[in-house]
Amino acid sequence: MASSYKSIISLCGMLIFQMASYGASANMQQFQSSWEESEWVVNTTQKHCSLTHKIPRFGHVRFEQYSGQRLKFTLMVEQPLVRDQTAHITSEVPAWWNDGEQRDLGEFSLKKGKMPLSIPRDQALRLYYELEQGMQPVIEFKDWGDGKDIVQVRLLPVRFREALPKFLECTAGLLYLDFEPRAEKRVFFSTNSSSLSRQTRRVLEGIARMYRKKPDFRIVLGGHADERGNPDFNMALSKQRASMVGRYLRSRGVAAKAIEPRFFGESQPEVEKSNNEAWAKNRRVTLWIADR
């Protein structure tokens, strides 16, 4: 019997030593807001909506959307990342829940710099939905230094739902696109005109040259008008402007099937003011370069 006790004590000692050794070789650094101070702050402008969560001593995360672009999620850090690596994201069940299980949200690339993580719309929406449901997303990666420690950045859902109405009201007013633009250009027009200026032709020629060299994209055209005049007239004028741009691109070698005209009339001003400078910026066609 004494021999059995000695064996058990010896085994326990070995396990404790192994656990201590593991803890020493792989420490955990955890960053999160406190429950009391956790908040999601909405900031809005005419062309941009953001929903930001501060992480003390580390940085912040943000859902954001610009007019004419899609939602994205970013991680900003106070201490820049010095080398590229991979992050693993999970979604944890809050401690006060009686049931539920952890969800694996996948692996993501971390890039050097102060914004190491930028997640596009589909995955950003998954994080958004997890927080909306009260889950806690956790971003895990190796530390910035020698990589021996594991870093966990936890996003708290506390007050997330409270901020959503204001954020959603802002995004509802943005120009919505059903694609992710690679690039964006703008060309401008005189009052009540769809004629292409010399500067506009230079911009369009550059895009056409890029297409002739590598025709692996489509060009979505968004025609616009300023607020003056009849709304029906402005809608027709914006259509005419987009059509003129499309016609010129076709004349310079861009396939008709690669051009997609859209028109918005006066509904999507670049600048929401009533003066000559604002009107000049609103009389435009936006060219979005997008995947086919």
Automatic annotation (TrEMBL):
Subcellular location per the Swiss-Prot or TrEMBL entry: Cell outer membrane
The keyword Membrane belongs to this UniProt entry's keyword annotation: yes
Matching SUPFAM superfamilies: OmpA-like
One Pfam family recorded for the sequence: OmpA
GO cellular component, as recorded: cell outer membrane
PANTHER family per record: LIPOPROTEIN YIAD-RELATED, STATOR ELEMENT OF FLAGELLAR MOTOR COMPLEX
Protein's name in the database: OmpA-like domain-containing protein
The species this protein was found in: hydrothermal vent metagenome
